[in-house]
């Protein structure tokens, strides 16, 4: 299972960064969303993987997985929604204001 | 506590003018003045004890580990300076009320002034040199704001910049000096340092510390060769010049020298550095002052000269010189502030302060003439005014001070300085007020209103009163302050007639010579103008300009506006650092037993990889990209569910829905395709970079997962205490609302702020401007759907709303013990509400909205905060939770926890934030011509009757 999670995190990271390096705002936003999946799963997985051991106390439970990383990631998911919403609005405002959704202020730069 | 409160009051007062200015200028001034008056009153309550020789202290531990504590103490010296700062501050507030014109934003002025006042009071009351440094820097910053108050004047901006550069550099060197001093003394508390004289003066670090600290003092007090910033700071409004540049800020350097006197003074190094600098400053600045035609420039250089005089006295290092220095500080503050205010009145009434264009104002403005003459004669040292008394004491000290074996040097130069001082003081009176009345003033001057001359008249009255009766008026204060300066009891004897002493002859020579100089002023001025002089501003600009140009080139070279290039560089740097860290350290093989792979999760994995790759390949089609992004998010949430994280799975799936809705709405106004514009080599470079980063992150997490924890985790603590301490069995939820409640409190606040930012951005877009006009002329690119609000969808969402709310409440209630909680419940209810928007349109739904989303966010944060504060009433720290079991007859026994109140706050904040974000985008759609729907559902008939539009 570890190899699957690790390769998924790696793929999400690579795809996220590749899209962030694009030159229009929309792919950058999508890239950031992918990268935040990758980071969330990364932090979650740093508590190590467990199957069928949810951190809900009960008499019949065999054991529990690490609840702390889950709590951290839970708030991270909600916050990254907030951040995504902000940059979407900023990108929308920039497009409506300038008439273009290019990332770079200089047309020649970065080519 | 009271001393800390005195220092804090002006800072609190700085908030008021901005609010009060709406009630009028007088109300604003009254409120600002009453804060200062209150601080002065509190200071006055401590005065009797301090004058008895006691020291009032307040100690607050702030960062004891660094030696930085908010310790304050009040002795005679602090009392004198705090009294000057607050007392003259009060007069300045009165004066500024009438000086500032209607165009000047008075609230801003008073706010800056109070900020400055607080910083100054902080300096003189600090008992911790690190705290003192903080206040010291604050005075530099607030004086920068005040000098540059008239932002539209280039001279104001340049003067402010120069003052900040010079005093800021001095402040930096002083930080170094103070740190050395603290190291030698073993404490950063002033009271300790002042006791450690022998250790400090014996240390080999004494001289570096002394030089560095003196640099700070000399730059602040405009001592030669750093005197050049003060005349340029005169671009400030006159109340600022009178306050900062005569009575208070420039005296901060003097204060510090006096404060450090017991620890640093008395050595030859001290004498030669301080006394010589003071002497040179006094003579040079006095000479320049004589040749300045601008009233304020004349006063500025005379201030520099008098500061030099006081510095010189402090440099002598004797008891009687310290008494003279303290007495002159009091006298200078009274007459110089009065003179500045007089100059301001002249400027205000005649619309010029150029001496060449003035003269003859005696008849036109008798009141300012009287005030100005009294103050100027005191500055000249004419008996019986207070300036005469302290100048006589200064000359007496200079008469028997030997400089490097030369007995004549000090007396001669001190007399010379006094001589120039007489000349420029008399010139101030003669060339402004005396002479014939002219008819070419830029504006016909007349006496100002009472409010404007009240403050300088009060000071002029003090000048006379101290001059006539120095013993009852000032001696007690001099005793207290000088005693605190030198650290032993002092009894000053101030009187006019000392007999035929050398000082008297020096005084006579100064007055006689001054009159001669004034008589010869016209030819001397021609000679002065004919001789070349170094121009400080040109030298300063010559030094600063190349540095600024270099900094500009460097930053514009690095920040060229190509964001994607920054990202690429950052990715490369992080990757390189990670690789370096990995290969420079060792690691052992992973021993942790792997979790077995099963078929369904493996299929999910395959789906995730395929969709991610698809997303990258087809990202040019934005709608496709969005749909595939949704798939990725779903797989991630299923992954969470499989890997024992039910709360995460619920949150992820709900956030996914909200995110996709948001992006879809935004995409309505964005291009639907991303053009292919990167070159192949650029795509290759990005591919390599991102593949490297992905490989790095993937390998890192794999290596982490295949090894056991290096340290025992704190997870066990949370698992063990969730039920007993937090009263819940869902450990994740207990962590969120209890163990790490403070984090969550921060998170919902951030979320609320994010939503407000979105609201603010929307407001900006909808303001008149290019974005708004683009929206107004938005062409409906696509044909309307046949029915935009389908009946089926409307009916289904109406049915679902109560169900969804019940589910939300259920998830909320069970959250403490089962997967769920405020975050998730908030998202569920938010999405149910969003469905109404989607089904029936913005207009219909918004009309049925009962609560503003802003209010929901605010209520959420406040309720969560209140739940935290509630713990205080039980004597527990912020956010400590409690729980108990309740039995209501028809129900089974159930648990109630205070954490539930907190979770309610989380719920409301999340609900409000999500709805506010999405409603904001809807407002943009309305502006773009989307008709507000008034009926719950409609059938969108073609507008021109039949057929396609």
Q: How do you describe this structure in short?
A:
Chain A: Pfam families: Oxidored_q2 (PF00420). Chain A: It is found in: Cell membrane. The complex is a heterodimer of chains A (111) and B (949). Chain A has 111 residues and is mainly alpha-helical.
Tell me the structural class of chain A. Answer: mainly alpha
How are strands sequenced across the largest beta sheet of chain B? 1-2
Instruction: Report the mean per-residue pLDDT of chain B as an integer.
Output: 88
- Number of E-type strands of chain B: 4
What is the radius of gyration of chain A computed over CA atoms, rounded to a whole number of angstroms? 19 Å
Please indicate the percent range of residues of chain B in DSSP E strands (runs of 2 or more). under 5%
Q: How much strand content do the residues of chain A show?
A: under 5%
Number of helices of chain A: 3
Q: What percentage of residues of chain B falls in helices of 4 or more residues?
A: over 70%
Helix and strand string of chain A, N-terminal first?
HHH
């Amino acid at each position: 299972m570890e190899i699957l999670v690790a390769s998924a995190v790696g793929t999400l990271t690579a795809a996220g960064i590749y899209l962030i390096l694009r030159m229009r705002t929309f792919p950058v936003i999508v890239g950031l969303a992918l990268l935040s999946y990758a980071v969330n799963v990364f932090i979650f997985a740093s508590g190590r993987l467990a199957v069928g051991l949810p951190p809900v106390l009960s008499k019949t439970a065999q054991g529990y997985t690490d609840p702390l990383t889950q709590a951290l990631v839970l708030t991270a998911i909600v916050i990254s929604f907030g951040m995504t919403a902000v940059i979407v609005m900023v990108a929308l405002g920039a497009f409506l204001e300038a008439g273009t959704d290019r990332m770079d202020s200089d047309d020649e730069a970065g080519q | 506590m009271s001393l800390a409160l005195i220092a804090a009051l002006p800072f609190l007062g700085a908030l008021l003018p901005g609010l009060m200015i709406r009630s009028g200028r007088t109300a604003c001034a009254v409120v600002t003045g009453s804060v200062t008056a209150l601080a002065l009153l509190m200071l006055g309550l401590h005065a009797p004890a301090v004058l008895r020789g006691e020291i009032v202290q307040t100690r607050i531990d702030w960062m004891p580990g660094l030696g930085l504590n908010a310790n304050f103490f009040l002795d005679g010296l602090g009392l004198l300076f705090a009294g000057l700062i607050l007392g003259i501050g009060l007069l300045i507030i009165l004066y500024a009320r009438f000086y500032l014109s209607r165009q000047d934003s008075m609230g801003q002025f008073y706010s800056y002034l109070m900020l400055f006042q607080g910083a100054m009071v902080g300096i003189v009351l600090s008992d911790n040199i690190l705290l003192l440094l903080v206040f010291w820097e604050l005075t530099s910053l607030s004086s920068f704001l005040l000098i540059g108050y008239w932002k539209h004047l280039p001279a104001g901006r340049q003067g402010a910049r120069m003052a900040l550069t010079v005093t800021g550099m001095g402040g930096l060197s002083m930080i170094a000096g103070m740190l050395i001093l603290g190291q030698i003394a073993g404490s950063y508390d002033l009271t300790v340092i002042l006791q450690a004289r022998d250790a400090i003066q014996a240390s080999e670090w004494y001289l570096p510390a002394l030089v560095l600290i003196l640099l700070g003092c000399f730059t602040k007090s405009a001592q030669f060769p750093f005197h050049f910033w003060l005349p340029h700071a005169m671009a400030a409004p006159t109340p600022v010049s009178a306050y900062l540049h005569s009575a208070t800020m420039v005296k901060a350097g003097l204060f510090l020298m006096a404060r450090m006197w017991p620890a640093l003074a008395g050595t030859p190094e001290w004498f030669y550095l301080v006394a010589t600098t003071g002497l040179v400053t006094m003579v040079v600045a006095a000479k320049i002052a004589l040749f300045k035609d601008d009233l304020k420039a004349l006063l500025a250089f005379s201030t520099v000269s008098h500061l030099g005089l006081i510095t010189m006295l402090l440099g002598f290092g004797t008891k009687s010189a310290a008494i003279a220095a303290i007495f002159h500080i009091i006298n200078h503050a009274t007459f110089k502030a009065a003179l500045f205010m007089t100059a301001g009145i002249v400027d205000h009434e005649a619309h010029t302060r150029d001496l060449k264009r003035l003269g003859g104002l005696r008849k036109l403005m008798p009141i300012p003439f009287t005030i100005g003459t009294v103050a100027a004669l005191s500055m000249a040292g004419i008996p019986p005014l207070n300036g005469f008394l302290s100048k006589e004491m200064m000359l007496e000290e200079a008469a028997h001070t030997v400089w490097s074996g030369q007995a004549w040097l000090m007396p001669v130069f001190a007399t010379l300085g006094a001589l120039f001082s007489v000349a420029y003081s008399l010139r101030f009176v003669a060339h402004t007020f005396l002479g014939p009345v002219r008819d070419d003033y830029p504006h016909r001057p007349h006496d100002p209103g009472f409010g404007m001359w009240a403050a300088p008249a009060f000071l002029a009255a003090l000048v006379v009163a101290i001059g006539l009766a120095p013993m009852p008026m000032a001696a007690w204060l001099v005793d207290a302050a000088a005693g605190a300066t030198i650290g032993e009891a002092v009894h000053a004897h101030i009187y006019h007639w000392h007999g035929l002493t050398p000082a008297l002859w020096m005084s006579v020579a100064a007055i006689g010579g001054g009159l001669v100089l004034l008589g010869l002023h016209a030819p001397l001025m021609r000679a002065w103008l004919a001789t070349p002089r170094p121009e400080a501003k040109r030298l300063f600009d010559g030094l600063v300009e190349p540095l600024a140009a270099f900094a500009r080139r460097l930053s514009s070279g690095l920040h060229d506006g190509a964001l994607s290039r920054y990202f690429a560089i950052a990715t490369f740097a992080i990757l390189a650092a990670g690789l370096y860290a990995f290969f420079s350290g060792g690691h052992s093989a992973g021993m942790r037993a792997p979790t077995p792979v099963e078929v369904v999760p493996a299929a999910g994995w395959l789906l995730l990889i395929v969709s991610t790759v698809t997303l990258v390949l087809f990202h040019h089609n934005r709608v496709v990209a969005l749909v595939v992004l949704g798939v990725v998010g779903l797989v991630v949430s299923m992954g969470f569910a499989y890997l024992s994280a039910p709360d995460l799975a619920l949150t992820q799936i709900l956030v996914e829905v909200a995110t996709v809705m948001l992006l879809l709405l935004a995409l309505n106004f964005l291009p639907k395709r991303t053009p292919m514009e990167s070159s192949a080599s650029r795509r290759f470079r990005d591919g390599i970079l991102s593949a490297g980063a992905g490989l790095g992150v993937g390998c890192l997490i794999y290596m982490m997962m295949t090894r056991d924890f290096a340290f025992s985790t704190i997870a066990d603590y949370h698992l063990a205490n969730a039920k007993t301490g937090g009263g819940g069995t869902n450990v994740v939820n207990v962590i969120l609302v209890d163990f790490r409640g403070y984090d969550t409190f921060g998170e919902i606040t951030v979320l609320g702020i994010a939503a407000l930012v979105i609201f603010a951005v929307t407001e900006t877009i909808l303001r008149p401007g290019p974005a708004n006009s683009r929206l107004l002329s938005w062409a409906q690119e696509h044909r309307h759907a046949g029915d935009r609000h389908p009946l089926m969808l409307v009916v289904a969402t109406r049915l679902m709303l109560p169900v969804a709310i019940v589910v939300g409440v259920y998830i909320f209630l069970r959250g403490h013990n089962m997967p769920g909680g405020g975050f998730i419940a908030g998202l569920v209810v938010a999405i149910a509400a969003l469905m109404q928007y989607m089904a029936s349109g913005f207009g219909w739904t918004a009309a049925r909205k009962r609560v503003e989303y802003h209010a929901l966010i605010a209520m959420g944060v406040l309720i969560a905060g209140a739940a935290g504060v509630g713990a205080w009433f039980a004597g527990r720290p912020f956010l400590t939770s409690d729980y108990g079991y309740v039995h209501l007859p028809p129900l089974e026994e159930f648990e109630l926890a205070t954490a539930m109140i907190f979770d309610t706050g989380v719920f409301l904040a999340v609900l409000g934030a999500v709805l506010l974000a999405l409603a904001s985008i809807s407002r943009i759609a309305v502006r773009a011509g989307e008709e507000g729907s008034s009926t719950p559902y409609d059938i969108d008939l073609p507008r021109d009757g039949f057929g396609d539009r």
